[in-house]
Amino acid sequence: MFRFSxxxxxxxxxxxxxxxxxxxxxxxxxxxxxxxYPSVASPANAHPSASAQLLAAARADADKGDNEAAAQELHxxxxxxxxxxxxxxxxxxxxxxxxxxQAAEAAYNAVLAVDPNNRDVWNRIxxxxxxxxxxxxxxxxxxxxxxxxxxxxxxxxLYSDEGxxxxxxxxxxxxxxxxxxxxxxxxxxxxxxxxxxxxxAAIAQLQYALDRDxxxxxxxxxxxxxxxxxxxxxxxxxxxxxxxxxxxxYAFAWNNWGVELVNEGQYDAGIEKFNHAVExxxxxxxxxxxxxxxxxxLNQFTKxxxxxxxxxxxxxxxxxxxxxxxxxxxxxxxxxxxxxAFIKGLALQPKSPxxxxxxxxxxxxxxxxxxxxxxxxxxxxxxxKDPEAASELATIESQVxx
Length: 402
Hints:
Elements (H helix, E strand, L loop, with lengths): L8 E3 L8 E3 L25 H17 L2 H14 L4 H13 L3 H14 L4 H13 L3 H11 L5 H11 L3 H14 L4 H13 L3 H14 L4 H13 L3 H14 L4 H13 L3 H14 L4 H13 L3 H14 L6 H11 L3 H14 L4 H13 L3 H14 L4 H15 L1
Helix pairs in contact: 1-2, 1-3, 2-3, 3-4, 3-5, 4-5, 5-6, 6-7, 7-9, 8-9, 9-10, 9-11, 10-11, 11-12, 11-13, 12-13, 13-14, 13-15, 14-15, 15-16, 16-17, 17-18, 17-19, 18-19, 19-20, 20-21
């Protein structure tokens, strides 16, 4: 049976490669890892203990992936303290995970009504607009989040999805020319080059950034991501180690170190690193997804499914998780579940050639040949150079002609 390649999540807050790495794309090298943005204290009220208890319970439920329970608790807490930023921000998060986008937008707007310059929440509401395919609104929101750890990474993803990375590259080349001594300008341009797979150009920009700020952890992390995508796993790990020597609580580097270990076939060692990453950042969906990939390699089917589902509960828009989950079900001949996973992924990412390809393989295994043919054709429309989709389509067409 055909075997999918699994995707690890390299921490870039987005990411992708054969694994997925986390790059916290920060547009400001002065922002230390783990920085939170200032929030305005809510006014005194008559119910602080009741709302605080509900918020604590909601956080615990959200960390477990029980977003329905968390939402109920947060709505009760928001009734008691409607101007409490922490309540409204978490409410926006769980409503987003439940795909209740209007409710999420309302909660985030409640934060912005109190704190209009909250960059963290501008980044989050940009994610809502992106999920609703509101490109211009999403771009505007992500730009209002800058400088932030995630905002720039999300901006790059948005332009990438639209096939407009060249526009963003031109904009940030100009910015880098205007101020070549600012490390974050080189970092931002490197992030774009990485998304365009211009690896030599990305490396050069990151070296410029590090020449100007030798403690720039995000730059070491991104440099590791680039090396990892080039297959230079040991070089990548050395960059993550350098970042961790500066900040041992930098969860992205722990996650990405695990990615490279799994790439080298060291699955148990990778799991150790992923677990440490999610201990530091319990909401890091990519960490749980990578745990699922590692457990899949170890043929621990149930554990892999549990970790993929945990990732989905934390971030239903994570890019590779539906490919990984569908692949897992497919290889274990659970074709109805594989079909559901791929279709769910396509509802969120309708242009993904890998999701169309996976659904095509699943239909083919179910002997639904016309449906399989349609999916392989769509996959080739999205990626005309995909040899696997071309091969499968040729096989299907030869069977149909008989």
